[in-house]
Specification:
This protein is mainly alpha-helical. The protein is about 50% helix and about 5% strand. It has two domains: about 140 residues, Endonuclease Iii, domain 2, CATH 1.10.1670; about 140 residues, Orthogonal Bundle (Endonuclease III, domain 1), CATH 1.10.340. Strand 3 and strand 4 form a beta hairpin.
């Protein structure tokens, strides 16, 4: 059975978006069989030693610039992981680098030096420097320079945390991809939320492509033709696709009985490798091998070209 997504009624679009409930239910059964053991975001090559100040502020600033890295080289780390690896390398050299005092005047040239790897520099350096300065200025002005004060003033409730994060340009995305990612990482490090049931998914290009290729969402023929022709989507088409993906994944979470942030680990980690001939990820030993093969087959049910989204720092 397919149902029209309830969250898109206010959007005019050339195509009809559908949720495929059968596909979502089938995937939910596989997700249960994976028996995934969650990571804690404590890889010392990517993150500082956990504490109450350096670690959460490092994550706050890094998530703020975690979008469209432009890194194309394949190494043991790539894309977002490589961004964190380079940041951690700098943070080992200067433990307080990712704090308000240092980043309030950060310039593009310094970021260019930090985030260059084997001749390749992270994309849109000026934009990332601007986002870091904005975060530092507002964090100092409103929260005494410590992101944990934001969580305290939000009374550790998801809605209030997200609303406060929207004050920062990097976190202003209406679907709060970066907000959910920040909370997810800190939650694994022991952040106690009063309403963890209000967490949702950090919807980005990886999850949208997975939702399409797995058949959980079925846009109309016109949009699929546009995607597979490599034509850049409009902002409205992008928003609708992201909302439909979120709706499908929320149903997947309920059907599988697995929390959104835990599901996101699996979906994002394998989703970014969806076109790889040989899949090898840091969580391979944390899932059931037989179920993993079924999962990989399932999410590759339909061939989907890399989606061209309009420029954004939201994801």
């Amino acid at each position: 059975m397919q149902i029209l997504g309830s969250n898109v009624n206010n959007f005019s679009c050339l195509c009809i978006f559908m949720l495929n409930i059968e596909r979502i239910e089938d995937l939910a059964k596989i997700m249960k069989r994976l028996k995934y053991k969650p990571i804690s975001f404590d890889n010392p090559e990517l993150f500082p030693e956990p504490d109450d100040y350096i670690y959460p502020n490092y994550v706050f600033f890094m998530v703020a610039i975690d979008h469209r890295t432009g890194f194309s080289k394949k190494w043991k780390y790539h894309g977002s992981d490589l961004l964190f690896y380079l940041a951690r390398r700098k943070q080992i050299e200067n433990p307080k680098f990712f704090t308000v005092e240092n980043l309030i005047n950060i310039d593009p040239e310094e970021l260019r030096r930090i985030f260059t790897f084997r001749g390749e520099t992270v994309s849109r350096v000026e934009e990332r420097a601007f986002l870091l300065r904005d975060c530092a200025e507002k964090l100092l002005k409103h929260y005494g320079g410590d992101v944990m004060n934001l969580f305290r003033e939000a009374d550790f409730t998801v809605e209030s945390i997200l609303n406060r994060l929207k004050e920062f340009r990097a976190y202003e995305d209406p679907l709060m991809k970066k907000g959910y990612l920040l909370i997810k990482i800190l939650k694994r490090q022991g952040l106690k939320l009063k309403d963890p049931h209000n967490l949702s998914f950090p919807i980005d290009n990886v999850l949208v492509k997975l939702a399409l290729s797995s058949g959980m969402i079925n846009p109309g023929e016109d949009l699929m033709k546009k995607i597979n022709s490599g034509i850049t989507l409009t902002e409205k088409e992008t928003e609708i696709l992201r909302k439909m993906t979120e709706e499908a994944l929320i149903i997947l979470s309920k059907k599988s009985g697995i929390e959104p942030d835990i599901l996101d680990d699996i979906l994002w980690t394998y989703g970014r490798e969806i076109d790889s001939d040989k899949v090898s990820t840091p969580i391979d030993d944390r899932v059931d091998g037989n179920a993993l093969q079924d999962f990989l087959t399932f999410i590759r049910s339909r061939s989907v070209r890399e989606i061209k989204f309009p420029p954004t720092w939201y994801f």
